[in-house]
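Task: complex structure prediction.
Instruction: return structure tokens for all chains below.
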Amino acid sequence: MKIEVNQVNKYFQKNIVLDHITLTIDSGKIFCLLGASGSGKTTLLRIIMGAIPIDNGEVLIGGKKVPDRQLLALIGFMPQNDALYEELSAWDNLKFFAGLQKLSRTQFLKNAKEVLEVVGLTEDKNKLIRNYSGGMKKRISLAVALIHQPKLLLLDEPTVGVDPVLRKKIWNYLKKLKESGTTIVVTTHVMDEALECDAAALLRNGHIIASDTVINLMNSTPNGKLDELFFMDDSSGQEEELC
Amino acid sequence: MLSILIRILSQMKNDRRTLVLLLFAPLLILTLLYFILGDSNYVPKIAVYDMDDSYTKLLDDNADVLVTEEKPEVNEYLENNNADAFLWKDAEGIHIALLKKNSKSGVAIKAIQETNQAMQSMQAKLIISYVFETNEDNQLDSLSFVFLGVLSFFFVFILSGMAFVRERFAQTLERMLMTPISRFEVIGGYTLGYGILSAFQSTFIILFAVYVLKLHVEGSILLCILVMILMAFSAVSIGALVSIFANNEFQLVQFIPIILIPQIFYSGLIPLETIPFGLGKLCYLTPIYYGCKSLEKIIVEGKGLGEIMPWVIGSVAYIGILFVINVFSLKKYRRL
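Output:
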């Protein structure tokens, strides 16, 4: 599912959070939104799926204008905080969200088994979420986003608080999903994560300062490190002075 | 819709303390009220002047009698001697002077009336006067319908309101709305889920009141339960509506007095006809009015379904209107 973001402006009260964002995310790719906290990553992700209204511009997913209720059946969203029901078991959480997506019983059982395996929580599936650790919550939250096999995955900082072994496993699974045609958008502030992606956009203060394939981005820096891109920008000088 | 309903019920199942509080807290308060408003063994203090000896003797069985030899200044006497009533007779009949209307003066009047009944010969007219005129009604016993209504309304309102605010805070609401589910289904699932829970609660309360506290219900208990369930559904809807406009739990708590206290005014505690400037008409805006009015008709007057129909219809209409408003208000969180 190709995502097109055209000239999107977003204000919170009088402050501009996203300033003329234009972005194209190709179908079947892993795309990374890279930026410090407060740069507008999460807002952009929410705008893409149509959770919050925009002040200007438009977002198209697969040619359809957002927001669109039918489109939501194809989107899997994992928010930054866990957004799970604490008083329910992991299994009941999965079942609830599968129910909202109107999955059949057999389809649910099959998908649930698969996603639980990926996030390594098969054995803990009957525990209540309130007894889960932070990392486990993160993982089950990812499983919830995957339960209806979405065509487009929007993941807000999916691997924060996940140990390196499992992180690797999750990335491998995301790549597998990509192979099967799923488009994945990931936000992160960790540069290393961006290396796992096909393309990336760098956000700062509501502006896109660079957007290209990861390889091209790396080649455009003097030492091949993505971090450099943030310092090559003009406005970085001011920020350093502030420090 | 079914998913939401099942989820709410299993959430409650796993959250035992909330469930226990939901069911037992109203019972606790109701029991307390029962004892506070129930028959006490209070013996009224009645001062008498110039009454027959036989009468005084009989009155002594029901009250603590003080005989005065000369007629004092009544108001002063009542205030200074801590007596509940002062009794004397003249050509007009028997005069009873009381300080003010309250449950103590009620007991005093009752004692005097009983004595009069026992003395068949006493055909004199009773002339009751109060030193301080207040409007307080002295029929708290017959106000059980108010407490039944207010109690169940209060707990259900908090439950559903909080649930919604918490869902917003944990951002599960956003996640829920980022699926193809319609707003109608969300509100429907919510109303049904919490409605069923509160239906249990209402049934529990009324059965407890009738069978344990021996509340006298003139009409059908089943009808009472039906009315209580309707009221519970409107409480769920109001809770949901308020929570959509509350940004956090604290604000919701602040909404409680705004929403709840006017409801208590219009629940039948104060006779609506006595409210000035036509403000009594505002009762049609409070869902509790429809419920308590029906309960009053069933519990006190023993009316059947036919006679309470207007209020039942009012209740159902109220739930329907709130439902539509809620479906629209949810647009605040998703435009579709």
